[in-house]
Write a structure and sequence with these properties.
2 domains; alpha/beta; D-Amino Acid Oxidase, Chain A, domain 2; FAD/NAD(P)-binding domain; globular; 21 strands; 25% strand; binds flavin-adenine dinucleotide; 389 residues; seven-stranded mixed beta sheet
Length: 389
């Protein structure tokens, strides 16, 4: 049994704590927030699991991880006692006449790059069969039957309850000020562990006051969304609207609740939503379904997504510290794959095997870095170098 600290109880931290605990490790989980996770990007999110919908703006490995993770989520969720929400009934992509060029471009992109995944072109009648209230606004749509969504807040709560019932040691309201190798500074003391797993999200960004153990090249990308209650609107599956500025979507949640999101702004400002964003998001929702005019605004939500300059996630591995970060706008989409790679890395470290061997053991070695923090060489490059020499 290894004595492992996990810093950050957002999406990755909670998953890592639970599954490493189940592998028999002794876990101590720290978060500067309360257990509800209000400071996490995970709580702000929409929970879309739409790899093809994202594919125009991300690398193919994210899409592949998204599909792998869609297959892994049901198993993870089945191991939680608490209530959760997961749906895989496909998504619809729609566009208004003025954005039809973008729509055509997207259709071509899917045909050229992801022909192995089903994608159905629907006319108004077919839209009405699938989503009876959308046919009046759109006369064509793309149906992507493999896509889904997860209840992000319900998942955070179910993970909290599971961690509590399995008696994992969780210190909430404890700000870890520094991480240095396998030592961390919290509550005025340095504490040493066999291994630290850093899942701080944007909390790991290097600033004047956060230097030791902070991650360079990490940035925050602001996202805003609305939580609406619209009992007169009946939409079953995520709807993505082609839009020149943002990737806009409506995600139906339980009992008349909808998420309308999300902006993507290069800023670490976590202040309240702007008028401009609210106008754009709400008019997009209204243009998809006029019933949103009568919706109640239950919450406007702002969060910051942690991202590296290439918008790829990264797992920096040493024998004392693993840093998982840069999940950007794809945390829920890819978390199960990252969790698998983390469990493999921890088992490997415990067996004191050379870290570079990890390249052979994980499905996405390009995410792994095994040199000390600050290095840019990744396992995949290293592996290819060996293969070519
Ligand atoms: C508006 C919005 C919409 C999104 N929609 C989607 C979506 O539809 N689908 C999708 O897949 N992804 C989506 N995302 C992205 C997703 O939420 C993130 O990728 C994911 O939450 C990142 O997980 P994480 O565990 O790395 O960080 P987080 O979930 O942010 O967790 C980090 C945790 O670390 C804690 N912490 C930070 N610093 C410290 C410290 N020094 N000491 C102790 N604790 C600390 C924080 O309190 C927090 O709990 C969205 C994000 C936003 C903002």
């Amino acid at each position: 049994m290894a004595n492992i600290a996990i810093v950050g109880a957002g999406l990755m931290g909670r998953l890592a704590a639970l599954f490493l605990h189940r592998q028999g490790e002794q876990i101590t989980l720290f978060d500067k927030d309360q257990k509800k996770g209000e400071l996490s990007a995970a709580r702000a999110a929409a929970g879309l699991l739409t790899p093809l919908g994202e594919s125009l703006h991300c690398e193919p490995n994210i899409v592949a991880m998204g599909f792998d993770s869609l297959a892994l989520w049901p198993k993870i969720l089945a191991s939680l006692d608490g209530y959760h929400f997961f749906q895989q009934q496909g998504s619809l992509l729609v566009s208004h006449a003025q954005d039809s060029g973008d729509f055509q471009r997207f259709v071509k992109h899917l045909k050229h790059n992801y022909a192995q995944h089903p994608c159905h072109f629907l006319n108004r009648e077919q839209i009405n069969e699938l989503e009876p209230e959308l046919g009046r606004s759109f006369n064509r749509a793309l149906y992507l039957p493999e896509e889904g969504q997860i209840g992000n807040r319900k998942l955070l709560l179910a993970l909290q309850q599971q961690l509590e019932s399995e008696q994992v040691n969780w210190h909430s309201n404890q700000h870890v000020k520094q991480i240095n190798g396998n030592r961390l500074f919290v509550n005025g003391d340095w504490r040493r562990f066999d291994l630290i797993i850093d899942c701080r999200g944007t909390g790991a960004i290097k600033t004047a006051g956060n230097t030791v153990g902070a991650i360079s090249d990490l940035r925050a990308v602001r996202g805003e969304l609305f939580q609406l209650f619209a009992p007169d609107v009946h939409i079953q599956r995520p709807i993505r609207l082609m839009h020149p500025r943002y990737q806009l979507y409506i995600a139906p949640k339980d009992k008349g609740h909808y998420v309308v999101g999300a902006t993507e702004i290069e800023s670490d400002d976590a202040g309240p939503m702007t008028v401009r964003s609210s106008l754009e998001l709400l008019s997009a929702a209204y243009s998809i379904h006029p019933g949103f005019a009568e919706a109640q605004i239950r919450q406007h939500v702002v969060g910051t997504r942690p991202a590296f300059s290439d918008n790829q996630p990264r797992m920096q591995v040493s024998n004392e510290l693993i840093q998982i970060n840069g999940l950007f706008r794809h945390g829920f989409l890819i978390a199960p794959v990252l969790l698998e790679q983390l469990l493999t890395a921890v088992a490997h470290i415990k067996q004191a095997k050379p870290l570079e061997q990890l390249a052979e053991l994980v499905a996405y070695p390009e995410l792994m870095r095994w040199q000390p923090p600050g290095s840019t060489t990744n396992l995949n490059q290293r592996h290819n170098t060996y293969a070519n020499s």
